[in-house]
Amino acid sequence: MRPLFILNSRLELCASLVRKGVRIADIGTDHAYLPVWLVRAGIASFALACDIKAEPLKAGEQNIRKYHAENLVETRLCDGLRSVKSDEVDDIIIAGMGGETIVHILSDSPWIKDKNKSLILQPMSKHELVISYLYENGFELKEHKCTFADGKIYTAFSAFYTGNAKPCSELFSYTGLLTKGNENGLKFLASVINHLEKKSHSDPHFGEIAKEIKERFSL
Questions:
Q1: What global pTM score does this model have?
Q2: Alpha helix positions (H), 79-155
Q3: Which of 94, 112, 176, 189 is the one with CA 20 to 30 A from 147?
Q4: In the CATH scheme, what is the homologous superfamily, with its name and number, of domain 9-167?
Q5: 106 vs 122: CA distance, rounded Å
Q6: What end-to-end distance do the CA atoms of the chain give, in Å?
Q7: Tell me, what's the pLDDT at 50?
Q8: Rounded distance, CA 57 to CA 49, Å?
Q9: How many percent of the chain have pLDDT more than 90?
Q10: Residue ranges of the domains in the chain?
Q11: Is the dihedral of CA 161, 94, 14, 148 positive or negative?
């Protein structure tokens, strides 16, 4: 058996949110590093490596063979979750996409509204849209973490379905479950503030949100 490879910090963050012993679907898997790592590390019992493009899946299949995970990881060419069935997976990972794309994938798959499933989401932009969508559609955040990878700060969170749909405040949509004691979280929020202050040049409202975050987290 080949030695288990090391995930980069961004993917490691997603892996840390996966429940042990579950079947996972990794949407937008690219080279299938995350699902292969999860099954080889004994965290996931089975994985679907899904991508909308054929070329990344071919590379993923090579990695699956390279790390002898053929019996544990299956590739699937599909758009979002459209070719994934509810009874196939427990934890659903959607990472490396913009917030709008993640919301589209979630809204296109009503079967994810299942209290036994967990969503692990890592938006590359507009994370506030994802958090707002989750609460407005009966989900709640369970864990929220941040990390550095290749000089950039990333955020990821897990969510589960409660059936209790409710609006979340605009402030919460930007800050989620991050706290003052979360060093990487504070660095992520500093980047959010910087982004909001730039947007405030065309709309002062974003400056007001940035000010709220600064005051709440003493930044």
A1: 0.95
A2: 99-107, 127-136
A3: 112
A4: Vaccinia Virus protein VP39 (3.40.50.150)
A5: 13
A6: 48
A7: 96
A8: 8
A9: 94
A10: 9-167, 178-219
A11: negative
